[in-house]
Amino acid sequence: MGDAGGISFTIYKGSQNGKIVEGTTKRDALVGEEVLLRVTHSSLCATDEVYLQADMCLGHECAGVVEQLGPEAKGFKIGDNVGFGFQHSCCDNCHACINGQENYCPAKIGYATGDLDTGSMASNAIFRSSFLYHIPEGMSNETGAALMCGGATVFNLFETYNIKPTDRVGVVGIGGLGHLAIQIGAKWGCEVVAFSGTESKKEEAMKLGATEFYSTKGKDTLDEVREPVDHLIVTTGLQVPWGMYIPVVRAPGTIYPLMVDFTNLVVPFVPFLLSGLRFQASIIAPRAVHKKMLAFCARTGIKPIVMRYRLGVEGIEKALEDLKGGKMRYRGVLWTEDWK
Predict the structure, then answer these.
(1) Which three-class secondary structure state does DSSP give residue 234?
(2) Are strands 212-215 and 124-128 parallel, antiparallel or unpaired?
(3) CB of 320 within 8 A of CB of 44?
(4) Shortest CA distance to 200 belongs to which of 74, 326, 48?
(5) Residue 330 C-beta-side C-alpha neighbours within 13 Å
(6) Closest by alpha carbon to 105, among 83, 124, 80, 130?
(7) Residues 283 and 257 sit within 8 Å (Cβ to Cβ)
């Protein structure tokens, strides 16, 4: 909270033994375009697991309420519902920034690369106004938080890489990203073909907007797919057997590997070559696309399916346990107050 003695608030950090610890961070006052917000919701991401042993505030999918404004903060007022995602800042001068692709800025600061006392698992956060987003009218803070990274990452594919409403879009993996990709693809106007390692997710995939569903468990081929897809969005935690999926992508289609896997990308070269396919790398969305994502989801009624946890040491550890154990359906959201 802020007072005459400065600003202090609670943050939840990783530690050497991987346990969540509660800490406090302090600031004298807001400067420049900084905004102080009270966190109401923090959505969990698999990336958070990577930093459980780091001495830093965890979380990068936030929704909250503006409490104070720095002298150069623009576009917001006290009481606004706002959110932030993975990226904190950029240089504003490089080729990427000038072309509206600040998500590829070489000097960008993001989650775990700077501002290590800033995160969504906290009572408050201080963030630059130029990287804050208004939660649209009619969208809850809970929904907004759960879209701040995964929603923007998936929507970026449709907006940036010219996926057309007449295209067939395959989605591999029905989890935190995959269940959003199905909804966004369906609302975009596409035929959405869902692939999952478990038959049990068929009914839910169809309710989310998939037009076809194929279980991949125990299979080496996908010959039963009735028609190839134009785009294949792969949202699994690790790489998939590319040789099984390449035949279901129509030439010259595109495969988007959205997983974070530190092994090498190895594909069957001749099938890949003869199909004229592309593997399109893609990360977080630039701000213009991020804003469009929020507006699109609010207008079309896209809502993440969430599991709720109280924001605190116990709640964070339980959420991480469920995520690691494969029990998360499909976005874990930590909350600090009951928000309608």
Answers:
(1) strand
(2) unpaired
(3) yes
(4) 326
(5) 24
(6) 130
(7) no
Residue 154 — φ and ψ, nearest 5°?
-70, -45
For residues 87 and 11, what is the distance between their CA atoms, to the nearest angstrom? Answer: 18
HSE at residue 77, side-chain half, CA atoms within 13 A, is 0
64 in Cβ contact with 122 (< 8 Å): no
Residue type, 213: F
Q: Which amino acid is at 150?
A: G
Q: What's the pLDDT score for residue 1? A: 59
Who's near 268: CB < 8 A, 6+ residues apart? 242, 243, 246
Q: Dihedral sign, CA of 168, 173, 179, 181? A: negative
Q: Has this prediction a pTM greater than 0.90?
A: yes
- pLDDT attached to residue 255: 98
The tokens 């505030």 sit on which residue? Answer: 57
pLDDT at 234: 98
CB 81 within 8 A of CB 144: yes
Query: Is residue 318 a contact partner of residue 309, using CB atoms and an 8 Å limit?
Result: yes
Q: Give the integer Cα–Cα distance in Å for 193 and 212.
A: 5
Average pLDDT estimate for 297-315:
97
pLDDT digit string, tens, across residues 50-97: 999 999 999 999 999 999 999 999 999 999 999 999 999 999 999 999
Cβ proximity of 42 and 145 under 8 Å: yes
Torsion angles phi and psi, residue 82, rounded to 5: -140, 170
On the question of a cis peptide bond just before residue 330, with omega within 30 degrees of 0, the verdict is yes
Residue among 161, 159, 202 at smallest CA distance from 179? 202
Residue 276 vs residues 82, 163, 230, 241: alpha-carbon distances, Å: 43, 17, 12, 18
Q: Of 96, 42, 38, 91, nearest to 67 (Cα)?
A: 38
Encode 37-57 in three state secondary structure.
EEEEEEECCCHHHHCCCCCCE
Residue type, 194: A
- Show Cβ contacts of residue 29 under 8 Å, excluding neighbours closer than 6 positions: 6, 7
Residue 236: name the closest of 172, 180, 183 by CA: 172
What's residue 339's pLDDT?
Answer: 52
